[in-house]
Amino acid sequence: MGVPSAVRPEGDYTIGWICVLAKEQTAAIMMLDEKHGDVNKQSNDPNTYSLGSIEGHNVVIACLPIGWGGSNTVATIAIWMTSTFPSIRLCLLVGIGSGIPPTVRLGDVVVGMPHDGFPGVAEWQLDRQDTYKKIAEMRHPPSVLVSALTKLESLHEMQGSNVSKYLATVKANERLAAKYLVSDALQDPLFEKDEIKNGSGINTGLKRMDSTQMTRPEPREHKIHYGLIVSTSIPIKDKVNRNNLSSTIGNNRLLCIDTEISNITTNFPCIVIRGICDYADEHRDACIGWQEPAAAVSATFAKEVLSTLAKADVACLPTIKSMGTSAF
């Protein structure tokens, strides 16, 4: 990527890329083919931007400040981004999330896409009866994005993904490779045993695990899954709640759980891409080392999406700013 090139006008940028965590931003910046100089943003714009080009598209990357969180904050970042860069037409929300086993495994990618009567992303919350209820749905992604993803799905079926190719960029970075690539040191707690019983001797549905029970499944390439991502305001950290939510939705539709994306996707023309770093269960801490590799694989897939997306198709879309963002 080298030294940043000359500053480009704000109106040259058509793709927004939003991250929640610094590690997701690091992975995103590594995907830039060329880095651009900073622009003179509005004085009251709180965002910090990384600018560059990816597969011919001029891209703006922004991330939540450390310690911030919540979907409303993500939406605020997006509003300022599209105000400072008024030609942005599409937004990518790229980062990490929790997968639903056994279909989805650590290191896989889930793309929020309309499927089987459900939108790509929906918000579900527990009501007072501790029952999950759907309270909001994402607007459908722009048709040009859906078409690009459909083409990409066919290309993957015929010749495989280019994720490994793009991960070579990460491998070439000696400072980050050990942390952002999957290694033999990473273990997958998907296969557990020894059910835990409560004081009455009844199985709780939970399973005990120690380091000797954590195994690495047979190696396979990263898999890309298309379907439902659910956003919840409170992180799900146990298998019982995870499975209850999945059962409520039914038919194994649920692929990924997230906590940061509901508000923005309700109102924004975007696509959500999540690299899987845990299983939304009691063993999240045991999976902590998967976060950086999951961030890297989601960023590489986002780059592959942009490689399939024609600049002319993006140029035909209305700007997000012209659509109005007051709905946030």
Explain what the structure shows.
With 328 residues, this protein is α/β, with parallel strands linked by helices. Helices cover 30% and strands 23% of the residues. The chain has helices at residues 22-30, 71-84, 143-159, 163-171, 177-180, 239-249, 262-267, 291-308, 311-315, 320-323; strands spanning 15-19, 34-35, 49-54, 57-63, 90-99, 109-112, 121-126, 132-137, 195-197, 203-207, 224-231, 254-258, 270-278. The strands form two sheets. A five-stranded mixed β-barrel has the order 5-12-11-6-13. A two-stranded antiparallel ribbon has the order 9-10. Strand 7 (121-126) and strand 8 form a beta hairpin. The chain is globular.
Write the layout of secondary structure elements.
Layout: E1 15-19, H1 22-30, E2 34-35, E3 49-54, E4 57-63, H2 71-84, E5 90-99, E6 109-112, E7 121-126, E8 132-137, H3 143-159, H4 163-171, H5 177-180, E9 195-197, E10 203-207, E11 224-231, H6 239-249, E12 254-258, H7 262-267, E13 270-278, H8 291-308, H9 311-315, H10 320-323
Parallel strand pairs: 1-4, 1-5, 5-13, 6-11, 7-11, 11-12
Antiparallel strand pairs: 2-3, 3-4, 5-12, 6-13, 7-8, 9-10
User: N-to-C SSE series?
Assistant: EHEEEHEEEEHHHEEEHEHEHHH
- Decide which structural class fits the backbone: alpha/beta
Q: How can the largest sheet be summarized?
A: 5 strands, mixed, barrel
Cα distance, first to last residue? 35 Å
> What's the helical proportion of residues?
25-40%
Mean pLDDT: 84
Number of separate strands = 13
The global form is globular
Radius of gyration, rounded?
20 Å
Number of helices: 10
Low-pLDDT parts are 193-216
User: What fraction of residues sit in β-strands?
Assistant: 15-25%
Biggest β-sheet: strands ordered side by side in the sheet: 5-12-11-6-13
